[in-house]
Specification:
The protein is mainly beta. The chain has helices at 344-354, 376-389; strands spanning 9-13, 20-27, 30-33, 37-41, 49-54, 57-65, 70-74, 82-88, 92-99, 103-110, 113-116, 120-124, 129-137, 140-148, 153-157, 165-171, 175-182, 186-193, 196-199, 203-207, 212-220, 224-232, 237-241, 249-255, 259-266, 270-277, 280-283, 287-291, 296-304, 307-310, 327-330. The chain is rod-shaped and about 195 Å long.
């Protein structure tokens, strides 16, 4: 206490003991101030009371749930399945969780109520409380890689061994690297999940979120061959390939084993003589189908039709009316012709063999003289007989 003159200013000051809290300055039951330092004016004798209250202690507990899922600690203390600390009211307490390998932290809980998703959580001590650090075991998934077909190449996971089929079991959200390597003569065609293409790259990364199987599809390399058709000679006709346009030189590039159709068409005055590979005749038909097994060139050979001028080419008056007019005739087939006239000896041999009538020689003599008095039909039958004598088929139909 202090005695002062009227209306003097008096400073009152309070200082709580350890573990006690200042509640305020009171005049009887009336609270006058919350501050430790309080000034009053002396106008009468007065008694002021500085009220104090003892600060309570509270216990905060941290627990692992389940205990195998991880550890907890308080205020950077030691780790364990359960830790506690007793502190004064209002003290900030730091809770920390640490999941075990293969587990993940779900959050800090008080009962069923989630308070925080962070590993580090601060709480003010206002009561005895128990907090749970909840953990969930991380699930594992199996990722499988397969070669399709197995002969097309190999696969591997995370730089492991190359195989036709391999797999790895990892925790959820783990990144897994798949690789494909095509065998000789094959091309990689993409990574597939079922029938769905998921990547064109030989190296493909996935995140394990469920059991998955991926196929590395391979396609046998396509061998291409060029088939060429040429006209020989170029002015003798045209060629085309697989129904394309006509020309002197045509080609098509196709897959190995493909069927290719070659066609030849002679120009007017020429005839087709066959398809040749080099000097070898491979087909006598104008349409020729080949199988592409290598690069190949085929020649369509054409021969010019030789023109025979029929009629009285002398232009004198000694000819018969049926020798006019003189006109060109070309043959569309090959034939044999004698360089000399058929003699009586030649024709008489035919008559002796077949019983045909010997022609009259007009008393000029027979032997090597040209045969006379032979009709068109006689000549036709003689030619058929001579073809058979020399091993050829008959050229003419004697009935028509």
């Amino acid at each position: 206490s202090v005695t002062v003159g009227s209306h003097n200013q008096v400073s009152l000051e309070a200082q709580p003991e350890e573990d006690w809290a200042f509640e305020g300055w009171y005049d009887g039951s009336t609270k006058l101030s919350d501050t430790l330092l309080f000034q009053v004016e002396a106008t009468q004798d007065k008694t002021y009371t500085a009220k104090f209250s003892e600060i309570p202690d509270f216990t905060l507990t941290a627990q692992s749930d389940p205990a195998s899922g991880g550890d907890v600690r308080i205020n950077e203390g030691s780790w364990g399945d359960q830790k506690s600390v007793t502190v004064q009211r209002g003290t900030l307490v730091e809770l920390e969780a640490q999941p075990e390998d293969g587990w993940e932290f779900d959050g800090w809980y008080e009962g069923e109520t989630q308070l925080s998703e962070t590993l580090l959580y601060q709480v003010e001590a206002q009561a005895n409380r128990t907090f749970q650090a909840k953990f969930t075991e991380i699930p594992t998934y199996t990722i499988t890689a397969q070669s399709d077909p197995a002969s097309g190449g190999d696969v591997r996971i995370n730089e492991g061994e190359w195989e036709d089929e391999t797999s790895v079991t990892v925790r959820r959200n783990t990144e897994v690297t798949l690789e494909a390597d095509a065998a000789n003569g094959w091309n990689f065609n993409g990574w597939y999940e079922g029938s769905t293409k998921v990547s064109d790259n030989a190296i493909f990364q996935v995140v394990a979120e469920e059991d998955k199987s991926y196929s590395a599809k391979f396609r046998e390399q396509i061998v291409w061959y060029t088939i060429t058709a040429q006209s020989d000679p170029g002015n003798g006709g045209d060629v085309r390939v697989n129904g394309g346009t006509w020309g002197d030189n045509k080609s098509a590039t196709v897959e190995e084993g493909s069927q290719v159709t070659l066609e030849a068409s002679p120009t007017n005055g020429w005839r087709f003589d066959g398809w040749y590979s080099g000097s070898t005749l491979v087909c006598a038909n104008a349409s020729y189908q080949v199988t592409a097994t290598s690069n190949k060139t085929y020649s369509a050979r054409f021969k010019e039709n030789l023109t025979f001028w029929m009629g009285n080419t002398r232009g004198d008056g000694d000819g018969h009316p049926n020798e006019e007019p003189v006109h060109g005739v070309y043959f569309t087939y090959t034939f044999w012709i004698s360089p000399y006239e058929v003699t009586f000896n030649d024709y008489d041999a035919y008559c002796a063999d077949t019983g045909a009538t010997y022609p009259f020689d007009n008393k000029w003599g027979r032997g090597t003289r040209p045969v006379i008095y032979v009709s068109w039909w006689d000549a036709l039958r003689y030619c058929n007989w001579l073809s058979e004598q020399q091993g050829y088929a008959r050229a003419y139909n004697e009935s028509t």
